[in-house]
Amino acid sequence: MSGDRPHARDVTVGVDGERSLGFGYVHLLNLSLVGGDWREVAGQVRRWSGWNWPQFLLVLGLDAVALFIAPDGDTGRLGWLYAVMAVALLLSFCRVAGVVGALAERAGKGMAYLPPTLSLGCVLLAFLAVVGMRYYADHGEVDVTGRARITAEEPLTDGGLLTVTVRNEPARDRVRLALVLADAVPGAQSCVPATTYDARLRGSGARRVEGVRSEEAFSLPLGGIRGDVHVEVVLHTDTGCRMGVRVADAALHD
Amino acid sequence: MKGTSRTRSGARRRRAAAAVAAALALTAAACSGKDHDGRFLGSQEIDVAMHKDLPGMSLFENYTYSGFDNALYLDLEKWLEGEEGVQVTRNADVSSAARIAKLQSGDADLVVASFSITPDRMKEVDFVGPYLTTVQGFLVRSGSGIREHADLSGKRICTWDGTTSRVALGELRNSVSVGGTDAEQCVRKLRQGRVDAVSTDQVLLYGFAQHSDDAEGLEVVPDLTVGAPQHYGIGVAKGHREDCRRLADWLKDYVGGREWQGNFREALPLLTAEQPDWISRHKPEDELIDAHSCVDRPKT
């Protein structure tokens, strides 16, 4: 059939005169201009078999679900899951684009299992991404640094008290904190090296840490506390030192 | 023949042993030898800027230097000339306000001048230290009746420019801060009755108190302090971290050794008499020296 039709490059279209109409195989010319050699395009489209699409759409859907349920916070921790999603999507698209089929054809009957195996692998990878995201959403570390609030006595001196409040949402078993201690009067004192603090959960004397230094992280078990978590801090510094405190890192984790 | 052969063999063994011993000695010498080229802080001649008007710390009087900073300088000079192979000169006219500028302009290579280490100053110059810790106190005329913070209400208190003392005085809300150009001027105002107290680091105040005649009747108020502890360090221009760390190692040996206590006792006899626990109050720990030496901000 196609042999009867002239190739795009063979078509000569002459349209003379203002507003004259032209008929013929101009659509093929357009196709060639936009998509390159139309025969190549047509050949590729022929390889986009209908059976290649479901696996691609399934992987695409699973990746979308994984993205939707991905937790906020430390994206570095989730990096491997994003990589898995990308690989699954890329390989499944390779099948849609006919690359996998072409490879299998070229390799002969021995490789006939390649397209379905690859598709299965892609689906499993995308499923793994969904499960991984679900796990991190349920148990992964949640960065709450920006949501931690400090209420403190002014000025903050030796024996001074401050409270760090963090909301335990989504619920986790432990809270990790790191506080930065700074000289409130940096032009007249250098007290940070001699300053430490004790920290404990409000209402729980057992859950406490002592002698924590500036920027040192500590973790306290929450013991089922939901909602606001109050960590009470007592400062120890030299007499006369006036200190400032801010949260360097706050995270909920299991 | 046999005997000759044995003799030659013995001689060869002795020569080999001697050669090995010589090689070992050379290796040991190379390993233990100090790798210095007669330069410290990039210079063959080190200028040390100091005060000359602080009795007990750094005083030049009757063509003689005295004080704790002076004693530190003499030990430092010995180390720099003996171990580092550089020449050391003293430049004893630096004012408190000019200490950083002296280092930054290159007019001085080191500053040993009751120089308090603070995070703000650490951004501008490096410190090696502390070599002494003190707190801010009050020097008053005997019989002034000033014994606690409440007694300072409405009183005129003198401090001088370029020190950390004025900042701490801000905590005393009802007192009046009176400025002076230097320590000597503040003490003169106190003697003349133009101010009620002089406030600065206790080691300096004890120096003035022990230097004054009994008739003048100046005394440091015991246990009346304000502000945070002050840590005195040796100021070093930035950009010489390796030499800075060598100096810090030397300082740790100095502070941990007998010289520190001997020099302190000799320089500040009134303080050591009034404060039986003067060592624990004024001698810094190695950790504190590590936290402040040759860094841009205090380490924790």
From TrEMBL, chain A:
Record's keyword terms, sorted: Membrane, Transmembrane, Transmembrane helix
Top-level division of the source organism's lineage: Bacteria
Species, as recorded: Streptomyces virens
Protein's recorded name: Integral membrane protein
Regions that span the bilayer: 53-70, 82-104, 116-137
TrEMBL record, chain B:
Name of one Pfam family that matches: SBP_bac_3
GO CC, alphabetical: extracellular region; outer membrane-bounded periplasmic space
PROSITE patterns given in the database record: PROKAR_LIPOPROTEIN
Annotated Solute-binding protein family 3/N-terminal domain residues: 45-282
Keyword Transport tagged: yes
Signal is among the record's keywords: yes
Biological-process GO terms, alphabetical: amino acid transport
Residues spanning the signal sequence: 1-30
InterPro entries the UniProt entry points to: Bact_solute-bind_prot3, Solute-binding_3/MltF_N
Keywords: Signal, Transport
SUPFAM superfamilies, sorted: Periplasmic binding protein-like II (SSF53850)
Similarity field: Belongs to the bacterial solute-binding protein 3 family.
Name of the featured protein: Glutamate transport system substrate-binding protein
Organism this protein belongs to: Streptomyces calvus
